[in-house]
Amino acid sequence: MLVCLAVGATAVSYGAISVASGLPFWFPVVMGTLVLAGSSEFLFVGIVGAGGSPVAAVLAGLLVNSRHLPYGLALPDVLGGGWRRWLGVHIMNDESVVFALTRKDPARSYWECGIGVLLCWPLGALLGAALGSAVSDPNDFGLDAMFPAVILALILPQLRDAKARRPALLGAVIALVCVPLLPVGLPLLASLGALAVVPFLDRTTVEQGQA
Amino acid sequence: MIVAAMLTLAVGTYLIRLAGPLLRTRITFPPGAERLLDVSAVVLLTALVAVTALTEGGGPADAARPAGVLVAGVLAWRKAPFMAIVLAAAATTALLRLL
């Protein structure tokens, strides 16, 4: 699946950066499997690599991953029951949530994407760790543009609906304004403030519909 | 120490992921709140695109990355194939950095 290839490519740079910051080659692979949330892992490795405290790295990582709480609330019923549910919770990420929200068969899309990322992320990290310094600067290949491009391409069908687009764009503006003011992760949560306008938008739509 | 920190992050992240589905099955939300929850994921993901495309470590990103993401947005709006969208974003950004 194409999303997994894009995730794998990002993972290669993650593995390379981890090894470059002095961590053992297995570290990004194990962390990739157990944490399975790319941006928090980049941040963790970045903080530890720069000589920061592991406690600070954990807190920053948890803050970045706090968006998974509202993801879990918004997620349709795709997890299933029994042992599957426990694995299903673990594979909740940006990509699998978009798939569950936008595809016709939410449960199947969620699981396919989630399992794909669960395989590609650690494997890509392993490749990156092996290549190490051979990948000088992954950003030379524009890899940093791939993640926002992937999410944007997947979420765009939802944004064609004005009722979702208006709060989404407002939320993006709120998050951007907060970036210089708040620690990493919090600007994303602040974007949810845009939800305050949703009841007003719905009301206007109803009135227009009646008119 | 690093391994303990990594495991803490793993457990903490799992609990954050678990909280949403648990709350959703235990509590019945009124229809208005259900709708808010549905929109909230779109809001979060759009903000995620904006923040990762436009900023880097608390400041603005270099112009090459937003340019690549903009190309991706235009192609996606015109319903180009997914592969083309993602590759065009990376290629645009890489080319602009070469110049």
From TrEMBL, chain B:
Please give one Pfam family short name. AzlD
Which keywords annotate this record? Answer: Membrane, Transmembrane, Transmembrane helix
Is Membrane one of the keywords? yes
The superkingdom listed in its UniProt entry is: Bacteria
Which residue spans traverse the membrane? Answer: 6-24, 36-55, 75-96
Protein name per Swiss-Prot or TrEMBL: AzlD domain-containing protein
- Which organism encodes this protein? Actinomadura harenae
